[in-house]
Amino acid sequence: MTVDDEGRSVPVPTEVRRVVSIVPSLTEAVAATAPGLLVGATDWCTRPADLDVPRIRGTKNPDVDAIVALRPDLVVANQEENRVGDLDALRAAGVAVYVTDIRTLDGAFGSLDRMLAACGLARPGWLDDAEKAWAAVPEPAERRRAVIPIWRKPWMAVGSDTFTGAVLARLGVDNVLDASEERYPRFDPAGLPPVDLAVLPDEPYLFTADDGPEAFPGVPSALVSGRLLTWYGPSLAEAARDLPASLAG
Fold first, then answer.
1. pLDDT digits (tens, 9 = 90+) for 124-168
2. Cβ–Cβ contacts within 10 Å for residue 62, how many?
3. DSSP secondary structure, 71-100, as one string
4. pLDDT band at 249 (very low <50, low <70, confident <90, very high)
């Protein structure tokens, strides 16, 4: 019996031929490893760009009936991205659901390896490349304190125990809201403790040079790719190469 990241036994069939992914990062990971295995994905699954499968709405509101109708051998999900009620509804319909839980870089490499193995796939070369790329990133010479907004109206930011925070910490950027009780707390830009940097991703909110930096006067801003900052999958190697320069300011 296969066991997922939550410690739950998953009744994966001996041969997996049909997979539905309800997480963009996992969609890209499966598609890059075994083109043709995916038979369904969310509306937000934008990678690979040529992915041509039925769409089943979003990560927070998947169409459970549509997923069941696709007759997947396995649905791959994530503890943070997907709601327990939706996953339980899929299980109640007889669908095998494998849940990942990714909060650190090292955790990402292991979790992706296990998830792909649950799909009947061998460890792919891109995962080895990603792990080597991050191992080659030099230890930061200095550390900076940053706020990492993900939304405005209301302002929300990365808080505690997140993959995004772990990626930035590896690059010498410490999240000023890391002690928050919430993973994505609301905040007031005027009420922040001193910060050295505002890290502004282009997703889920599309921050730009004209929309975001002005809220943090006197603080340097770094506009970065949200995919490289928050996705775990084939983008990991690219993140190791490109994020340090993006954060340099």
1. 999 999 999 999 999 999 999 999 999 999 999 999 999 999 999
2. 25
3. --SEEEEETTTS-HHHHHHHHHTT--EEEE
4. low
Nearest to 157 by CA among 177, 179, 173: 177
Strand-strand pairing, 149-151 and 156-157:
antiparallel
Q: For 51-93, what is each residue's pLDDT tens digit? A: 999 999 999 999 999 999 999 999 999 999 999 999 999 999 9
Helix H or strand E encompassing 199: strand 197-201
Which residue in 36, 5, 32 sits closest to 236, CA to CA?
32
Of how many residues is the chain composed? 249
- What's the pTM? 0.94
In this structure, which amino acid lies at residue 81? E
Identify which of 130, 125, 180, 132 has the alpha carbon closest to the alpha carbon of residue 157. 180
In the structure encoding, which two tokens stand for residue 167, read together? Answer: 């990626």
Q: Residues 147, 220: contact at Cβ < 8 Å?
A: no
